[in-house]
Design a protein that fits this description.
- By secondary structure, this protein is an alpha+beta fold.
- The protein is 17% helix and 42% strand.
- The chain has one domain: Jelly Rolls (Sandwich), CATH 2.60.120.
- The chain contains three helices and seven strands; from the N terminus they run ββαββββαβα.
- A seven-stranded mixed sheet has the order 5-4-6-3-2-1-7.
- The model has no long low-confidence stretch (mean pLDDT 93).
Length: 130
């Protein structure tokens, strides 16, 4: 899994990038507290939904589209309830629970990937999704 950085407004977070379908399926399952931050990058906007089966740590789950937050959700450990509305997203960020509140993150906030660069990320996505 590739490491990098994202920003949400003035906050910068170290993150793991889940890009391939295998990486996205595993997500943060089995990660004890505190889990790392993880960013799920999708090649196109689509309806993305999550669950917390086999995930022992509570999470803040941030759905984004076109560099803006459009959903803020909470993931409850081990839950099989579906998380996410029928709203397209191209980036979903999982942070340790409480980070959204502590960092004053809200709907409509600007989001972006700092590293890898857009060009590097396009290449990684192409290689993992072909």
């Amino acid at each position: 899994m590739r490491e990098g950085f994202i920003h949400i407004n003035n906050n910068v977070f170290n993150t793991l990038f889940a890009i391939s379908s295998e990486e996205q399926t595993r997500g943060l399952m089995y990660e004890e507290w505190p889990p790392p931050s993880m960013s799920f990058v999708y090649p196109t906007s689509s309806i993305n939904k999550f669950w917390m089966k086999n995930t022992p740590s509570p999470l803040d789950i941030i759905f984004c589209n076109n560099n803006k937050i459009n959903q803020l959700c909470v993931g409850t450990p081990y839950s099989t309830n579906i998380i996410g509305k029928d709203i397209p997203s191209d980036l979903v960020i999982e942070l340790p629970f409480g980070t959204v509140h502590q960092s004053k993150i809200k709907l409509g906030d600007q989001v972006g990937i700092i590293r890898p660069s857009k060009e590097e990320l396009k290449k990684i996505i192409y290689e993992k999704w072909r």
